[in-house]
């Protein structure tokens, strides 16, 4: 059974109610007005609806303010901070695993292993020191998750079309690599295609490496999910649409749902080559 | 066709139009409490103007997907009961909040209609789902939100051909949408919404039993 937004709430706690409207979840709707009355949250259905009106107005107003307050530079800070937290959490997790292995002999690894140590009972000062480090590691990983959630909420407001095509996190990465939405909008799509692959690009320009086919857009399923021979084409097609999306987001802000349809069709044609080749 | 209680044909300076009673929202013409429901601005208004059998009687519980700035949903809240308005884009929601200010039965939600689990903890089972989302996969949105409809509930959807495929013939797009929708819904009536809205299809449907 799922819980309504009012579950466990003090009926007069505005802030908690707003938080529940924004962040709560349920798989299926239920007769919430009746349940709220039965749970003593509201005296009757009329009172429930009055409260629901107040709370949805406040929650929606706050969510709008948060999303509209988001600008591309805030997104750049957030996505860089998320990357820092992830990288540092992983580095510390390696250290924790190495240290933990020396003390307890288990062969765990990664942030999950660090989390498992947080629950351990201390027997001596060494345990305490290691557990404290594991806690910090898990905390950094949690911080990376909450930054990711913030990016997922705000990127669609900053760059709706780019977020639609690339997903919010990749959209934020591209904006970050370019230095801002305007800078991204001004880049040719060939540059967008290799953003994040600067090392490989400069190696190529010095004449001792092949040209990179893709940068961070490799994380997009349309590139990764295309067979190796056709990935360059897929990356070029994706980068082309992402550049157009960034330009619309920067210069007009309109939502253009047809971009997604056009991209889907291009990729479908490129991926169909694999089947044709098999015949 | 009968109009739902609370919706009437009303005379505005010699011109008769659909109307509801409530605070004006988008600069529509008014006469006392009555406010003109402009079918050019509202797909549901166009469906009523076309005489489609929406099954609306008035006082229903409604989930409105794609509420935008609240043009249509404000009229719905004028004649319906509890009305949940879902919209994804923050910019129009500012105006939706203004429309909801004077309507105690209108509950605005900044949510994505493709993610019903993010609002099923707020929205109760409803008699009517109104859908007007200009996104790709409109049949899928309807299928995802079927969980909100009571067994004898109604889906009133306006399908925008250009959102599915800009290059295809709208008639083909509508055929596809009708077919996809038929998996989850029994289609009772469909009609093109011209001349009010070009390349839009109005649909009245009821959920199939699982």
From TrEMBL, chain A:
Give start and end of each Nop domain: 158-272
GO MF annotations for this entry? snoRNA binding
| Any GO CC annotation of this UniProt entry | box C/D methylation guide snoRNP complex
Q: Which InterPro entries match?
A: Helix_hairpin_bin_sf (IPR029012), Nop56/Nop58 (IPR045056), Nop_C (IPR042239), Nop_dom (IPR002687), Nop_dom_sf (IPR036070)
Q: Which domain of life is it from?
A: Archaea
Query: What is the official name of this protein in its record?
Result: NOP58 family protein
- Organism equals Haloarcula argentinensis
From TrEMBL, chain B:
What does the sequence similarity comment in the record state about its family?
Belongs to the methyltransferase superfamily. Fibrillarin family.
Q: Which UniProt keywords apply?
A: Methyltransferase, RNA-binding, rRNA processing, Transferase, tRNA processing
Function of the molecule: Involved in pre-rRNA and tRNA processing. Utilizes the methyl donor S-adenosyl-L-methionine to catalyze the site-specific 2'-hydroxyl methylation of ribose moieties in rRNA and tRNA. Site specificity is provided by a guide RNA that base pairs with the substrate. Methylation occurs at a characteristic distance from the sequence involved in base pairing with the guide RNA.
Q: Which Pfam families match?
A: Fibrillarin
Q: What is its EC number?
A: 2.1.1.-
State the source organism's domain of life. Archaea
Which residue stretches belong to region Disordered?
1-33
A GO term, aspect molecular function? rRNA methyltransferase activity
Name of the protein in its database record = Fibrillarin-like rRNA/tRNA 2'-O-methyltransferase
Recorded hits in InterPro entries, A to Z, give: Fibrillarin, Fibrillarin_CS, SAM-dependent_MTases_sf
Q: How does it assemble?
A: Interacts with nop5. Component of box C/D small ribonucleoprotein (sRNP) particles that contain rpl7ae, FlpA and nop5, plus a guide RNA.
Chain residues that bind S-adenosyl-L-methionine: 71-72, 87-88, 112-113, 132-135
